[in-house]
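question for whoever is on the cluster today: can someone run the full assembly for these? two chains, 705 residues total. i dont have access anymore since they changed the login thing
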Amino acid sequence: MSAFQNGGAPSRAMDEDSDIEEEALAADYREQVQYEGMEELEQVSSMSMAQQTDDIQSRLAAAAQPLDFSAPLEVKFASYDNYCSLFHFILNSDGPVDLEPPSYYWAWDVIDEFIYQFNSFCSYRNRVARQGNNEEEITILREAPNTWGCYSVLNVLYSLIQRSQINEQLAAMKRNEEPMAVAGDYGSKSLYRMLGYFSIIGLLRVHCLLGDFSLALKTLDDIELNKKAMFARVMAAHFTTYYYVGFSYMMMRRYADAIRMFSHILIYVSRTKNFQKNAQYDSISKKNDQMYALIAICVAFHPTRLDDTIHTALREKYGDQLLKLQRGGPESLPIFEELFRSSCPKFISPTPPDFDNPELNVDPLEHHLAIFMDEVKTNMWSPTVKSYLRLYTTMDLKKLAGFLEVEPEKLRGWLLVNKQRSRQIRWTDNGLLDGEIVNSNDLDYAMQGVRIAPSSDITC
Amino acid sequence: MGVPFDYAPDRPEHIDAILNGLDRYNPETTSIFQEYVVQQCEEKTYDAYANLALLKLYQFNPHLTKDETITNILVKSLTVFPSPDFSLCLHLLPPHILTPASTQSALPAAGDAPLSEAVQKLNVLNNLLGQASYSQFWATLDSDDLYADLVADVAGFEELIRIRIALTISQSVREIERSVLESWLGLQSEGFDKFVNGVCGWEIEGTVVKVPLNKENEAKGTIVRENVKVDQFARVIRRAYEQPA
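^ ran it for u. tokens below:
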């Protein structure tokens, strides 16, 4: 069945009530618990859990509810506590909890919302520290360094993965064996299996948000990216997975692989567009545009033929920008920056900010952007070089340098760079980090003294 | 065949075990990773995936950070340019690390200004290598004593870089003027002859150096061919039926 109905969840602004109701519970619970980083899940007294089991179904449902972005700090804290107690209940009761997830997309919604709140909390905390003018909130945040801490968030995700033996199950499925044989007491229950599975996708996302792109891709080792994958049943999960995998590839300069990922999911979305008239449509359509922008960036780095559907849509949405990107040179830099800013994930810094030195709390986006722009600058003359070389079968280097009004030494550098960057690692088989070096240039050349000898190209 | 990013041929078993388990997040493994970095520097081996794991531990536990280890990791990653390793390491460092010194020195408590300065200096080298401005790379490396300090721990740094430069040259060049190659390799006279003949196996003929043909520098015309399978057309065919004329 199609997975598009799970937009039934109310939109962000509507659900503050349920959070406020839970605040009382959370406050009560917070008194009993001493937080200390990773141990906090273990330290929760399970007595309080037992009292709450009767309303567990409503808590399961609440955990999947979006929190309003502008919710006050107390609500954000309370929400964190709610997640801790819920995950503690699921992970640390005596044996597996006997519960059916409210729906088949519930597990995704919970993990998605959990990470979304972690993400927005970290961004918010960093912003408060950077602006440095809200003393009250600074005090609250300073005193609770472990709330929404990266260690607790990772602990939840890894614990769910381990409990459910999901990696073992997926590995068994890959070998065409029965996953239940390795699932264990927990993993054989759909609640744990689904939470474990989507926690893997959650890890992909968290690593990417923290700037660890290779680990992000490594996390998906046991998941096969195809339409039969479990995530494909939940549209939002499907979409998110490809966005983060594509983005991570782009940051590892594997543009061909990034384009492949973005194209795959965008074609899928374009085919199912008519089904998506629901609350999720807005967020999907925003991510959709972001991925087109990222494709534009990748194509500029790595000119290639796109699927017709993608190409047409790309020209509609980003026609002017794409042209400038493909032309290269200094004029392309602001476009690269603009598109990167608008379509990258909301990067976070994992540790509490330095409240005493607001200026030190640079937005992580600026950091990652700066690194990315260095790579853009390294490459920006490749289009120029190519456009000239296309016209000749041999060319005098000094003459070309004259045309371009640069020193021959600079031009030699550009030629070397273009040649290097056209060699790319491209995935063929096995894990996402695996791949083979492929020469993607449609225009090859070599330098012979002061002559450049391009070989003519493109036949179809 | 390609090599997966997370693979390192010389990785000891105990490191592999940590990387594959949750201990990669355990602050207590920091010292083990640090020793491994020292080992890589001394033995001219390289393990990007393990080094990134250490940088992640620093990212999560800033109080454990050792500046020297960070710069050693960055210097090691320069020796594998033009791979993205240097950038991937930078992504895991604190966000203010690349903020220009002018803004930072104005701050009263820019605690790790020396680290920040060192990282920015190394970033300059990385960009020069990335842009294939090799002669400028050597000039910059010589221009500041800080550079000598930064690369001191990495055994054979210059030799390793030179080999990578030679490798990129061999991919694009069949014949090159001696004077240009000298500036690219940062070598003259005897040292140059020895490296070019001995290590690279290229021929010096008067004022030119000839690079033997290889797969990359022969510049053969490539034929872009698309392998299209019938099922890729399934959509088109189905559309033709679905859509009323």
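summary bc i know u wont read the tokens: Residues 68-229 of chain A form one domain. Chain A has a mean pLDDT of 82.
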